[in-house]
Structures are given as structure tokens and as C-alpha cells.
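Bump. Still looking for Helix-turn-helix domain-containing protein C-alpha cells.
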Amino acid sequence: MTQSSASPLPTPKERRRLRESKSLTLAQVAAKVGVTCETVRAWESGRSTPRGHKRDTYAKLLASVGAEGQAPAATAAATATATPVRSRRSVGRWDSAPLDRGQERGGGWVRAAAEAGESTGPAAFPKDATDAFDRLYAYAAPGLVRQAYLLTGRRTLARESVERAFQLAWQRWPEVAVDRDPAGWVRAAAYEYAMSPWHRLRPSHRHPEAPPADADDRALLDVLLSMPSSYRRTLLLYDGVGLDLPETAAETEATTPAAAQRLLHAREAVAEQLPALAVPDQLHRRLTELAGAEKLQAPKSTLVRTDGERRTRFWTRSAIAVTVLIIGATALTLHTAPTRYEPVPAPGAMISGVPPRTGPGPLTRADKKLRDKLHKAAESGPHRLAPEVD
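Sorry for the wait, here they are.
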């Protein structure tokens, strides 16, 4: 069960890149679209999506910015050398197959299947939405489970985070399918769910899970969990996953200088307690080893899709039931409500001219004495009168 998509928009990262390419600030874009700076920042981070008239205005603005930058880009591409540019680190070292920048931007799971020995012809491409989703899941889910474990230190929560992220991706598959980085879309959703502060209210959160068996792994995991969540996420994306600093800043919803400061503070915290990991390459190697030490298995893609559809149907039916209940209560109120105005009775008022209360007044002292005498006489009975003879 998927949701229909509106007119296509660039990915959140591409939105930010287009804005920065024209040296536009958030305030300038917000003024042109008619929203606040926080709204534009949420659009560029992927937290929310514009709708209605604002979506059309925002899309036209980005299209105009992209059209202005096509000519310089074409000139630069014509003069570029044939030497391929490689990123500083492979982004998908924790995934089930190697991942380069070409794989990251859209068809990574298809390329990974081809490198594994499958056909590179038409059969290598997804047949339908279900096949494409299953390939993306098989490609990205194993690595995301291990990454979520490093974020939370909980195996159950890591699997649940990846499952919920892919359920959301399947629900919004038309949007995810056209994204330049589907794996990054799901990764951002999994990170957001895994690091939600509401998990602290769950009863299972009160009982910590068993730590890793190796002492070095336990020490590194303790250092990671002692950091603030924003530092931990930045360190994992940059030194673990291998994203560039601007991409890390965009995914963590921060500016590039702020992301750099978080990264430096996180590295200092790690180097302070584990001096051997002061070198970034050593830190990347240890993060990879710690992620791979835990045998975490993601649920099957079929189960994820069916559970997501079942949850969507449940909430849809619940919303319909609540709507019907509200409509019924409104109809009952309209049926039982009075159809005409009934004046409220006036409050009570003092009435004058009423005669005073009549009747015997209170007994005096003489009256009370007589009453007591009569009562005593009644108890002994009246005196009998006898006639006398004269």
C-alpha cells in the first residue's frame, strides 16, 4: 500500500545544493515561497515535504535555479578530464556489497547484484515496485541494522528502527523510488526512529541489553553511548559510513561548520578515553569491526512490507472509525438539541405585602406552669365525686 506522489521535487540534499549554488540564504528562499526559515530548513533536511501551492512555488524556484546553473555545469563537464573522481572513503562498507558514488545515487542495489554475478541485462533491473523495494532492502538493511546498533547499543531497537524505516519507505515508495539516494533516505528515517527520546518511556528501555563480548568493543561502545546523540550521529556518518562533511551536515540538519565542530568534539571524546583511536582511519576500522562483530539479522522484506501494509490499514480504519464516531455524535446532538428558543426562568425576587405569620405565640412562664400541672393531674386521674346526704 503506497501513497500517490505529487509533482516531483529534487531530493532534500539537491534542494540545499541548488540554494547554496546561487548563494541564497534560508531567509531569501522563505520570503520567495512565503514560509518561515524553519520550514525551508525542514524541506532541505527531508523532515517534511511542501504541499499545495507552496510546493509549486518552491519547485518553480528550484527549477529556475537549476536552469541557470546548467550552462556552467555543461562547460565544466566538457573541460573535465577522463580520470574518475573517487570519494575519500567507500560509503557502503557496512552494507552487504561495496558501494561507490554511482551506486549511492539511485541504483546501488542493482549494481551490487550485477557485481555479485547476476545478469547485467534487462533482468538485472527491477521488474516492478515490489522487486525494486526488495532489492533495496536486501542491499541496505544489513548495514543499517549494524549502524543503528552503534547509535543505540540495543539490538532489538536497531532491528525495529530499520523495519520501521523500510515500512515508511514502502508507504511512500513513489517518492523514494525517484530519490537520487534511496539508501540515504531510508538511513535518515532509521536514524531518526532509533534516536527518538520517546524510547526512554518504554518498559524495555529500563533493562540494558548484554554488552559485546570483547572488552575493546565494550569500551568503544560505552564511549559512543556517552556522547550526545548529535555528536554520535555525526561521528557515525562521517567516520563510519563515510559521508562527506556537507552531506553529513545536511543529514543531521545542521550547518557545515556546526557539523565540523560536532565531529571534532566527538573525536576528542574518543581520543581522550581511547588514545589508540585518535587517528581517523583507525577509528573507522574499529567502528567497522564493532558493527560487524554483532550478528544482527534484519527481518525478511516480505514481512516488512506486509507488516507495514497491515499497520497502514489499521490506522486508516481507526481514523475512519473515529470520523464516523464524531459524525454520529454530531448527528445525535443535532437531533436532540431544541429547535426553538426557550427563555430561562427569571430568578426569584422578594414579594411585599404578605401578612405576618399568625397563630399561638410562645408560652409564657405561667402557661408552662399550668401545662405541667395539667400533665401531672392527668397521670393520677380525676378525683371521684361522691354524693353526701344532708
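The chain has three domains: 12-76, 90-209, 212-299.

Edit: fixed formatting.
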